[in-house]
Amino acid sequence: MEIHRCYDLFLTDRKISGCSESTLRFYDYVIGKLISYLSSTNSDSVVENLQTHILPFFSALQQQNLAPSTYHSLFRGIRAFTRFLHQEGYVQDEIRLPKVKQPHSTISPLTPAQMRKVLHSFNSNTYLGLRNYTIVRLFLDTSMRLGELSRLQLTDVNLEDGFVLVHGKGGRDRYVPIGREMVKCLWRYMKKRAVIDVNLSPHHLFLTEQGRPLTSRAIQLVFKRLGRKINLDGVRLSPHTLRHSFALAYIENGGDPF
């Protein structure tokens, strides 16, 4: 069977399994690289012969000087696809992949002084300033993931009882409590949000000034610009950094980083 057809079946299987749109886009990117490689090298695209092309494919990836984390992500995507091929009987033998070590990167959490520096850097009198301040506070208060925060809807926020409904990976939802100050912060943001044009996306919690949903990529850009602005002495400011900072604050301050 042609690899294009098997990929379509794989994608359908992932959708039925409840994979998120971002995960499906990830698979599309990864397997698209494999298909492009087979096409560019005039290689056989029949999955029964895929084993002969796997090692040359990974060798070609190594020559692209990819970051270790990117290379490992591509490996994980290909591994999921080849396992599917074997489990569903499209290939007789399990396709052998090269051994790829998972990269270990050290993420330095923010110190309390650095947390204060970040939080004091916003102009909360403007919509963007208050929105970005609220996003940072929410990461610090809940330790939720980037994708989880970008998917939040207005109806997921319960200010009266002090919790947020977080939609996790694979359809696993959970209720996350928020502190009193976080409740006040969200209330102020939602009040300012109400005065912008939300016709394009009335349900998403975090919006652009034009009323469009704030994507994960847009949130990453907010952190990138903020990191350049305030310079945290070598600490890379990102949503993931704040998740680690949440853990540090929980240990050192009984769960209250503020």
Automatic annotation (TrEMBL):
PROSITE patterns: CB (PS51900), TYR_RECOMBINASE (PS51898)
Residues in Core-binding (CB) domain copies: 1-86
Record keywords: DNA recombination, DNA-binding
GO MF annotation, one: DNA binding
Coiled coil: none
InterPro entries: CB, DNA_brk_join_enz, Integrase-like_cat_sf, Integrase_catalytic, Integrase_recombinase_N, Tyrosine_recombinase_XerCD
Classification via Gene3D superfamilies: 1.10.150.130, Intergrase catalytic core
Protein name as catalogued: Tyr recombinase domain-containing protein
Keyword DNA-binding tagged: yes
Record's keyword annotation contains rRNA-binding: no
One BP term from GO: DNA recombination
The Tyr recombinase domain, residue ranges: 105-258
